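User: I'm new to structure prediction. If I give you an amino acid sequence, what do you actually give back? Let's try with this one:
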Amino acid sequence: MDYKEIIQQRFITPLLNKKTGNIGVELEFPMLNLSKKPVEKKIALNLLSFFMQNGFKTEDNDCDGNPAFITNSYGDCISFDNSYNNIEFSMCYNSNLLKIKERFTSYITEAQLFLKKHNYIITGMGTNPYKKYITQSHVNYPVYNMVDEYLHKFQNADTHQYPDFPAYLSSVQTHLDINVDDLPKTLTLFAGIDFLRGLLFSNSPDFEFGKTLCFRDELWFNSAFGICGTNTGAVDGNFRTLNDISKSFYERHMFNCIRNEKYQTFYPIKVKDYFKNNPHEDIRQFLSFRHVEITYRGTLEIRSDCAQPLYDAFLPPAFNLGIAHNIDKAISKFNEFFEHKNLENSYLRKCVSNGKAIKEFSKNQLTDFAVAMVSISEEGLIKRGLNEEQIIKPLFKRAKELKCPALYTLEHKKNIDKVIAEYSKL
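Assistant: Good question. You get back a string of structure tokens that encode the predicted 3D arrangement of the chain. For your 426 residues, that looks like this:
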């Protein structure tokens, strides 16, 4: 089997029977010890035990035999992603985002009540505001260990000096079922509005609270994952067919495999070269961290959105879902906005992430575009007829002011504990 067949079977075939409708959401948040000390592993494990006494059961254990992933009858999963600093709520697919949000609200409410007894809290930020007080608090789980090994092993003079960075980052990831005929244009559009989502959802100041609005971008791209080129970062280009999507995988990289039931890491090798001499089953270990991605589950994943304040946790998924259900109108508005301008998505996203102006557009132009796209998304949600449009209402204020949560945080950085408390409310 050559690399083209391998990519076809792993990533394209699962798309063929997909129909627009369901949505899945993964929400990560910093869990903080308010004593400004490292998170205690026993508190994290006790939180999982609390949920296991209330309807959840162990799905998988870590290498020490502790629960790593716990699930309930809905298929929702609670875990700590990479680090005990970073709690994750992986909400199972559902046709109604409002119902997903209601389930999440019940979980996070229970978690906060439990943690309050121990002077801990979950807050809604994309970078950990207590970075200077805490340790990596790594979760001893095979894939997390592999990622940790790779980041340290291939750190070099051109990478940043935070190889433990996954321990300090939190995001919200949206998985969308897209009709296969609409997939190329939908992928292209979501890659194109990556900068807009940055304007609306950036919530990741750098660890020193400088001017950066989405430090997450820099930490991913300028780590050892950056050696993999297009395995991470913004997505440039125009996808017209499924074949275009397939071709985008050929130039990606493999950097790990499993041999004798153990992970091995190696210097990145392009997919098209790797599978000349390695078993096709290794594609199961392919990892990509691009801002917009096609997954082996047959979903379109938007993964560049920062975790939001808890009360606005579902704004990115709601926005993404509405756009997907009003895709032709969104594309028309996008093309109108960029008429006679040929700007790379990576350039636009970098401007936004670094808190710099996009010199090709005035603030009024950006505001008008942001409001228009939020309106288009709202219209898409209304079309679904599930009352999901109520979730997106707060986003209009952000769009009109072009004020993402990171800007508010930086305005109040001298009183960061107040921001932490505010962003922990529902």
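You can read the tokens as a compact description of the fold. Here is one thing that stands out. The mean pLDDT is 97.
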